[in-house]
């Protein structure tokens, strides 16, 4: 015996039933999710095919859609129970999903600002590309309702701190091995001829090469070193070489010369130890940590997931019934309703 | 003191003994398995060497063999205890092995239909190739009787759902990274010039490249980007550059240009984070999940395996004594016997 | 208060002390191990540098050394407590190390036989190479005395059966994927033109390529397929194409043609699923199994190791005091001693 | 109610407060760590860009800095509680971090000695490069204070012994497989023509190639073998081939010839088994060991970490307040203070 939901305590009319169904959190979740998937397809289309210097209609449509998101989020902040604006924002930011939304919206604003100027157009493209990743990661929100995927996401989130520990340990070995190997493989690098290209090359060689090597992309031909003799000018002296009969002497320039290929075996040995530490010790230690932590958080994950589910339902209960591109209409209507309440209703009641 | 098995309560004759031995589930299992292995060898031979536009004798022989399988499966469905046809099919489908059989038989029919027509001949070959995999996977049925392999298969089957969770998480990161990186590496893609080849290339770049990268095939030279300048026509304006004495001015076209190699470092950084998430976090999380689940299902696996063994023995008890290529004969004989029972025996009894 | 060890119940003389030290199992173990390491160095030298058609002195010396091993093993068999020859051999074979010795000695005999004949000389080299591996694996015997390494070896030995299960599951997926992908990538293979080279190529493509792919060596360029059209002759028919005014008609040959590159996407998808199953599911399942089994056998491993240690000490107690290349001398002396006991001592006692 | 810290039992003056703050272990740790990071940046700069035959100012500055380190360590040894020098050194060496310091300082001295001489200049560069790694690994000292990283470092340190066990097992398989495969792939190697280059090549082929293969860098094209016929001269004999009518006979040289490509399939098979053992069995066994050991040492790690923290605080309490490049000043001042205590104070007190 559920309570009657109708206006006058009776049954709902068909239209009311439809409205209740349409406004229930589960329905809202379904069509908001569908709308979001469509949004992602459009976004992918724009960044892959339709990103020109002059905005295309599709891109403008996309930006309107994101603008709707923005209004949505502002409404959510306004609806937080806290009284002060600071408190409202703090409450809102406490959810990891809202932080996602904030990042994506800030990135969009930045991307829009950058792409509109001639000089920063290329940075605008980069911002759009990075934003793609953020928008796709927001899809995990939809995964969250799944009984199978939700708790795994909670555990995944918990594991991030363990991976950071792993990276903190790894970065030291990467730096130690990367700098040592580069100092042996590239002998003629000079600090006075550095430009942005050569700096980015050095960063790549020092940081990324050891990182790729950790994944088994050993790049052995790079480790072999270029076969070019580098001689130190200041070390040269003239060496007089005389034949036995001392009749003819030839002067030879004797310099200290180095060849990266001579150092190749040292770099090979360094790679040997680096791989043991980076690939075998650290990775396997991480596996052991994951196995340990998984056993610990497995039970809690279900609790946390249920708590998150509650939050999600509350959020969708509040969410407008219209999907993003038309959500402005709903908010306009809400504002009208609010104004009507303030003015007309009072009159009526009077 | 076993019960005597002979017709008149006495010992079995030598021929009867041979028949009992030949009809016992274990013997049936042995020669059905051997026949199946021979079938697989023939199938491999046909798809590797003997798949011509006009069917070869070997292929026709193979299709007859599969037709025997088909009759076998129909007989099995008919023998299910349920009374209605729907119930019989439901009972039959409830076993994962029967689902395997169903898929392979449907694929065979489809493959036959496709390969017989000129236009769809190439699709026929694809269907034959996919069917090879399905036929080989049915071999696990034979593994199932092993005390060592059986329970492992049960656990393997249980792990599939965990891998699906892993894939569901992975696909989001693949899409996010794949679309973002492609939007930076291929600037001149155009939605209006898309054809089937270019679409399949984009699908490969967006979906498969990140997937291969997860396995350590980093394809670093593709990430470096092609060194080709792409200029936006609509962004061009004429720039008048005058010398100091203002006597001569040259007009220059000033355009916003992009080069994929300039974005290379962004894609490298994206790959950096993608590999941490895809290769390190997700894979190690999966290992932790597997370790956890394995400990849980280890005991049950033995129970489930024993239950499956019972099912297997029952099935082989029912199976015809003749192996597939000649199984039609047995079924014909069964029908004859059944008809004889219906007609002659009654007369005899009368 | 140890018991006096001297002949007449008193102290040992210096020479006797030296002999006791020299004959103690631990000393014997040390110099037998050293001798074995020297043997391995020599063996490596011979197979790498000194394997000619005519035997070099080094190789002959090596064969004499192995002959000494052989005598040693025969003496060990003779010393087993069982009375019958069959029992002695069974007792001896029950130790995994003796089985190693047996295999290496049989391989040596075979290798010697093969390398002496003109026709089988190349097989002789293969047998020598394989024997290298067996001889080096015998080094684990020396590891076995280590407190750290010994129990790990016991666990390693226990894990072999789990790896066999893994391989048994893997081989089915390898066959299924390998045959299916090869049937799409190489269309013009013909059973009638097979020779040993093409068979070994097909074996490599079907079995080894999927195996290497499991280790992340994806060989994507091989999967792309060669770009060569293969047309089926029997499918060709003459197609008359007439222009609209019917004045001129040209005859065209219309054939069903295939191109491996058209099937590339199917093979890519197959590799997609094969890698999930082979690299992710099976490998991670194996890790889970190893983790489980390790926890189980960890305690027992110590017990088994101690038992093996006892066996080892007993063996070295029996072993001749001289190291392999001179061991013949010791055995000759033992035989002499035995004969003296039989003849002279009896006289003396009389 | 803390105890008053002022000289005369009262409050501290502002300058005293500043000094107390500046001399507290936590502040010392902060600026010593910062100074060390700056040192590492300078060191990286020198080895990457500024390592010339004639020392640059930067390198000299660096060496002065390291000299300061040296004095620091000597002061630490002197401050150890033990009375004898040997005891002091033993106490000091018992900490793993001090051993790190010792190695790095010895390496620096060696590197300096080597780089100053013409003949050993290249070895000097190698020593500098290796020292880079050691200096960067000392950074872990700073990590040690972190609540998250510290215990992980303790566990990491504990795992080293397990990895050594793994390597000890691995090296046997590497040698067995490496020597066997090389004996088949390079047939014309000769012990008499060996020089340092060819020896280092052989070492690489025998030891490093199997090691890289373990990480999935299978180098399949090297395993295929060079396609060059090697014939044994001593095996040649003259074969008279006569035609049927015996009128004309031709003499043919019949030799035993070998081709590495003929042995390719054996090497492939060897790699097959080597990968199962090296990549699958040993690596997964190591994962199982790590998981087991991690569960064991997890609790202890926190205890050990706390003990290490105490040690660290004590060390920083003793450390000079000035950072390394100026630390000499502090020590000079300490010596002065000590002398003053010895002489002036006594007078004062008198």
From TrEMBL, chains A, B, C, D:
Entry membrane topology: Multi-pass membrane protein
Keyword Transmembrane helix appears in the UniProt entry: yes
Primary location recorded for the protein, binned into one broad class: membrane
Residue span(s) of domain Ion transport: 37-301
A GO molecular-function descriptor: ligand-gated calcium channel activity
Alphabetical UniProt keywords: Membrane, Transmembrane, Transmembrane helix
Domain of life, source organism: Eukaryota
Transmembrane stretches, start-end: 29-49, 155-180, 271-294
Gene Ontology cellular component list: plasma membrane
Name of protein: Ion transport domain-containing protein
Organism: Cherax quadricarinatus
């Amino acid at each position: 015996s559920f309570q009657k939901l109708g206006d006058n305590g009776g049954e709902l009319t068909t239209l009311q039933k439809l409205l209740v169904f349409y406004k229930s959190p589960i329905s809202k979740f379904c069509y908001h999710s569908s709308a979001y998937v469509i949004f992602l397809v459009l976004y992918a289309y724009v960044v892959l095919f339709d990103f020109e210097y002059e905005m295309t209609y599709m891109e403008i449509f996309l930006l309107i859609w994101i603008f709707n998101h923005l209004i949505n989020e502002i409404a959510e902040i306004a609806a937080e129970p806290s009284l002060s604006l600071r408190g409202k924002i703090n409450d809102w930011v406490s959810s990891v999903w809202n932080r996602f939304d904030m990042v994506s919206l800030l990135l969009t604003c930045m991307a829009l600002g950058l792409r509109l100027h001639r000089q920063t157009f290329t940075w605008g493209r980069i911002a759009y590309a990075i934003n793609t990743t953020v928008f796709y990661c927001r899809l995990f929100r939809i995964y969250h309702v799944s009984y199978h995927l939700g708790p795994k996401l909670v555990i995944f989130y918990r594991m991030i701190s363990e991976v950071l520990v792993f990276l903190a340990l790894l970065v030291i070995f990467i730096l130690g091995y990367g700098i040592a190997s580069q100092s042996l493989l590239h002998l003629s690098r000079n600090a006075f001829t550095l430009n942005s290209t050569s700096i980015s090359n050095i960063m790549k060689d020092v940081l990324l090469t050891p990182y790729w090597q950790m994944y088994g992309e050993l790049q052995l031909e790079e480790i072999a070193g270029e076969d070019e003799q580098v001689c130190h000018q200041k070390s040269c002296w003239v060496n007089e070489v005389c034949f036995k009969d001392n009749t003819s002497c030839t002067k030879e320039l004797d310099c200290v010369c180095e060849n990266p290929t001579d150092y190749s075996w040292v770099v090979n040995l360094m790679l040997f130890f680096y791989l043991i530490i980076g690939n075998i010790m650290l990775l396997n230690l991480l596996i052991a940590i994951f196995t340990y932590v998984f056993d610990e958080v497995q039970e809690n994950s279900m609790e946390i997931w249920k708590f998150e589910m509650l939050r999600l339902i509350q959020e969708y209960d509040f969410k407008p019934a219209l999907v993003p591109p038309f959500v402005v209409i709903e908010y306009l209507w809400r504002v009208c309703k609010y104004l009507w309440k303030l003015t007309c209703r009072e009159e009526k009641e009077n």
